[in-house]
Amino acid sequence: MNTENRFIARSSELDTLRARLLELRKTAPPKVASFADWALGHPQELAFNSVRSLATLANVNANTVVRLAQSLGYDGFDPCRRAFQEALRQNSSSYTNRAAKLKGEPSERLFDEMHQSAVRNIEGVFDVETRRQLERAATMLLEARQAYIIGVRSCFSLAHYLSYCGGMAFKNFVRRSSEPGDIYDLMARAQPGDVVVPITFSHYSTETIRAHALARQRGLKIIAITDDIRAPIADGSDIVLIPRMDGPQAMPSLVAAFTLIEALVATMLSRSEGATTHMREFEDTLLECGAYVGRDARL
């Protein structure tokens, strides 16, 4: 699994906090050490939760949360939370830093680097381990009562693509309404036997992390698509798919992520008896409604 594509803050503050958590994982009393290990993959949760809600999310008692903050050198949890908020705020500038590095870059060199990165990223989708995980994910989705695809902001395009393509061929894919709060509405309707596919990359979206947490609480199966095995939505997921996202672009490259989704849907289609019929019915309905036109048609 690729872990080279995580964005690292230009400021050292987030790295410093992570280094201190790593040290506590080795040296602190067992309960604090275990919570430090959890916190390494969930810095957003430390930044934006109260002691009580954080204790619930991490399945620890409130005293352990306070002890971790004190072990990190803070007088209490509030200054610890502010430190993580500031570290994440500084880390959010990494897109800007990447964009700034493009200034003055010769087009030929930029295109060559993008080309080479895209090839490597796509090749990673078809390595032995990722193929094995794609096979497992296809089986899980085919057997699901309902499949819910969650992604916001830059990941919304990926979530929509998987939901739309999957919905064309498989009746168990649930389409999102794209309205504010619809993620929570979907999770409220989900039942055992359903599969949730959360998609988020650094910087990890709070809404998607919440959906992942709700899915875990409700005992749903989870296929996470993310950029690191330590990502918040990787924790507790049944399957974790990690496309490479390398490249000089300001935003992480989504080329491999789209390829991974295409490979996932193609694998499902290759195994399904009724998918072709369902897709034909879907296409015929669109044609009847006038959704498609020929090349020479005029509206």
UniProtKB/TrEMBL annotation:
Positions of the HTH rpiR-type domain: 15-91
Domain named SIS: residues: 137-275
Keyword field contains Transcription: yes
Keywords carried by this UniProt record: DNA-binding, Transcription, Transcription regulation
TM region positions: none
Classification via PROSITE patterns: HTH_RPIR, SIS
Organism superkingdom: Bacteria
GO molecular function: carbohydrate derivative binding; DNA binding; DNA-binding transcription factor activity
GO biological process, one term: carbohydrate derivative metabolic process
The protein's name: Putative HTH-type transcriptional regulator YbbH
